[in-house]
Specification:
The protein has 147 residues and is α+β, with helices and mostly antiparallel strands. It has two domains: 109 residues; 34 residues, no CATH class. 47% of the residues lie in helices and 24% in strands. It contains four helices and six strands. It has a two-stranded antiparallel ribbon with strand order 1-2. A hairpin with a 2-residue loop joins strand 5 and strand 6. Helix 1 runs antiparallel to helix 2 and helix 2 packs antiparallel against helix 3. The chain is elongated.
Length: 147
């Protein structure tokens, strides 16, 4: 799954994704240890999707995380332990931690060179599409707005 990100969008995407999951896993392990669960194990199932619903190239991930952790018993079997849901404050802290880490990763790998007009136009179009705003269109070197 990380090879998908690396191959399609560069190492920043894969590294950001791993960092995000590690942050959530760290929070889950902490909550489990507070609940008395020794050596909690975390996990996720993740799919890499390369295209959006209208076949635009937008690589992204879908992850399913259990609402708890696993622990291994003396016989080697696994037991599942449900954790209480995160509070709004927990979500705010996790989001801040993930966004801070991802910002550092992206700015550390950012190329300070200029972005050409065509590449910037594609980025602008993708941002407008995600935000649901009117899309700019480039025709004969002139930008027009399509409603």
């Amino acid at each position: 799954m990380f090879a998908c990100a690396s191959a399609t969008t560069g190492s920043a995407s894969a590294t950001s994704f791993r960092s995000s999951l590690r942050t959530v896993f760290s929070w889950q392990r902490l909550q489990a240890r507070r609940a008395g669960i020794e050596k909690p194990l975390t996990g996720a199932v993740t799919l890499c999707q390369r295209y959006g619903s209208i076949l635009q190239f937008t690589p992204h991930f879908h992850s399913w995380l259990p609402d708890g952790v696993f622990s291994q018993d003396a016989d080697g079997g696994l037991s599942f332990h449900r954790l209480p849901p995160p509070s709004d404050d927990d979500i705010d802290r996790l989001l801040l931690r993930v966004s801070t880490k991802v910002d550092k990763l992206l700015f550390a790998e950012a190329d300070d060179g200029p972005v050409d007009d065509d590449a910037q136009a594609v980025l602008d179009d993708q941002a407008a599409s995600v935000l649901g705003t009117r899309l700019p269109l480039v025709r004969n070197g002139r930008r027009e707005t399509v409603s």
